[in-house]
Structure formats: C-alpha cells, structure tokens
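Action item from last week, closing it out:
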Amino acid sequence: MKKTKQVRWLLIGMLCWMMAGCGAMNVQQGGLNSQYDISQLQSRIKRNPKDFQALRDLGVASYERNQFKQARKFLIRAFKLNPSDPQTMLYLGLSLEAEKLPKLAHRIYRRYRNVPANSEYRAMIQARYDLLSRDMAKLDMKAALANESQLATKQLMPNAVAVFPLNQVDGSDEYKPLGTGISEMIITDLSQVPDLRLVERIRLNALMEEMSLAQTGMIDVDTAPRLGHLVSAGRVVNGNYSVSGSNHVELDVSFWDVMKGQQPAVNSKTDVLQNIFLLEKDIVFNIIDDMGVELTPEQRAKIQYIPTKNLHAFIAYSMGLELEDSGQFEAAAQYFEKAAKIDPQFKKASARAQSSRSMAAMQGPRPNLARFAQSRGGYNRANVFAPTGVDGIGPVSLNLMQQRLQNLSLNIGSNFIPGQDTRKSAEEAETSGVPVYNALPLPPAPPSIPNRD
C-alpha cells in the first residue's frame, strides 16, 4: 500500500513537471522530439509496415531533425497509404524542397485544393504552393528569355490571353496602383469565358522583371507580340490610363492578336473616376466581342459583378497587389485588410489578406510553423501542429501535453484516448450578385502610397 502511494505521488510529480515544461516546448516539432517517441514509432512500423500514422509521424520527426532523406523516405510511404492526409502533404513537400526537388514538391502542394476547409493545414500548404509557384515562374521566364530565338517558331496557344498591368501616363501618384488593380479585374472577368486560358499574373510579373519592364510598365508595338511569344499567349492585353485633375479617368486598352501579327486599334473609354469599374466592364465586353464569343446570361452576369463599389477600398486593394508582386507580403496584407475595413463587403480583399499573411509566415527555406500559428490568430495553436486523423479530414485534439501523457500511459500500461476536435470548420468566402449600373459616389482621398524606391 505504501509503495502504491509512493508510485502515485511520483506520477503526480512527473505530471506537474511536464505541465510546467509543456509551454516551453517547441511546437513546431509537433511533440515528436524525444528518443522515446522515435523508438515507439520505429517499433510500430516494425510490427506493421503499413502503419500510416507511425510512418507519417516518423517522417515529421526526421524532418525536424534535418534528416531530410529519411523524412522523404517515410513520408512517401505514408503518402502512398493515405494521399489525402494534409500533414503528410505539407511535410513531404517541405522535405522534397529541402532535397532540392522543387517540381515534385510543387506537385504535392498543388493538392491543397483537395484538403477540406476545416483542416488547418490547408492554408500552410497553399502558402508554400504559392511561394514555390513564384520561384518557378521566375526560373521559367529566365529560361524563356535565354532561349527566345527558339520560341519564335513555337506554336502559340490561340485561346491563351496575357493581361499586363496598365501603365499610368498622367495624374497623381496616388492613383498609380490602379493599373495593377484594373488588370486583375480584366483577368478575373475574362476567366469567366470557359474557352479562354488566362496566363497567371505571377508569370507575367516575373517576365516583366526579367525584361526590366516592371518599373516603366511600357509595352509598345514591338514589345507586346514578343511578350506573347515568351508566355505562349496568342492574345495580349495591355494599355495606359490617366487621371485628370477634374477626377476623370481615361482608359486606352489594346487587344493584340499575336498570331495574326497585326497592330490593334486602341479601345478608349473615358468617364468620371468613380465609374472606372464600369469602364473596365465595357472594355472586357469589347474584348469578348472582338473574339466572337457568345456569352450565356449566367456568364455575362458573372462578368458584370463588381467586387467593391468603393474606389478608396479598391485603391488600397490595388496597392496590396503591387506589394504582393514585389514579395512584401506582410505590407500587402495590411493594405488588403485596410480595403476590407473600408468596405466590409469586399470579400476578395479579406481572402487576399489572409493569403498574404500566410505567405509572409511560411516563406523561407525552413518555414516557422509556430509563427504561422501566431499569424492565424483565430486558430487553436495546439491543433495546428497536432497529427491529423487517419482520414486526413482534420486534426484530432491531441496537443503536446496529451502526447506526453499518452507516452507515459504506455509506460505504465494504462490507456489514454484523446477526444475528437469539435470545433466548427471555417467557411470559405463566396461572392454573388449583379450590380446596378449607376454612378458610384465619389470616395474620400486615396490612401497614402509607401515609398517603393
């Protein structure tokens, strides 16, 4: 009896020690930071070579110990057993990147679209996918320029459209971000046409940087067809805009058919500044008409949708796009959040802010997952780094303390059954509706523009 009490007090003391030390534990390692854990996982795999969770957790532990080759080996085995598990996707991608296999990592990260919204790994995987996409686009464009003479004879894709940022030729610098924002609106609207393939903005930005066009933005009669060839686009959209002192805006947009090699006529539209969104819609419908495309009523309604009617919010959003293009993700997120604060119905701004913050937290060769958890303030910090369920649908509520208690329970022969996470899944933002075509109210002065020199 006395011995039993001693054992009980010893266990209580051990539990108190673990509770005190739990907060100092590196959450990035997911609790798999002791030789005991490793040996237990190895024993499980030896007993059952198809123990998915043991393979995955051993892969994660190996990655955290910089044993990337070992990590890749275990995580590939786990991935083959359960390709839908988001934690496996993340760490397998990170291990492949560490092993200098970015294309394979990119293919793994691309599967983030299949991860349910209630899995807290989705944003992490998507952030790495977006960051790696940017790096790969730069390499692709550098290679395209190096082999430009061979690309001249390459077959262009007639349904591929490249929309470059519009260049400001007159007006206050306060309106300089509009060129980027309007070009993204054109891309979004043209993407509603099923047969068109829009070239990604990150590829166009990478190409303009390589050609030193990012600062000037000048695309002329000689440059536009060349850009089309470099990105294999049969059609190119570019143009200029100016804002007068009387708050009028003029858009001059050209729609190039690179395959025909003819210089297009300039599509010019002018109106009061607050109606710039309506001018953009007119230009998009003109482009579609030039291609001879017949739109369904549903497609036309989607194109007519205006994400925000507040010019002040749109300029802040456009500034966020420019900062994001230059890799300043944290600053970009602040502008996206400013846009969403000005217009709470501007759902796209809110989503973009979250995406930029995720990229800011997940950038670098070894992303700090603990920093990511802090950047997603609404997330349960423990659950972000806990292993996901066997079905990969979402994390189980197995935090670091529970992992230690579970290991202890294995030692003393008792059973510990962690409870399932019961938090509700996050809903993804959606937009719908068709705006009424009327004059928009003149907004307050645009937000200040940071020094980009």
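Closing note: The chain has 19 helices and six strands.
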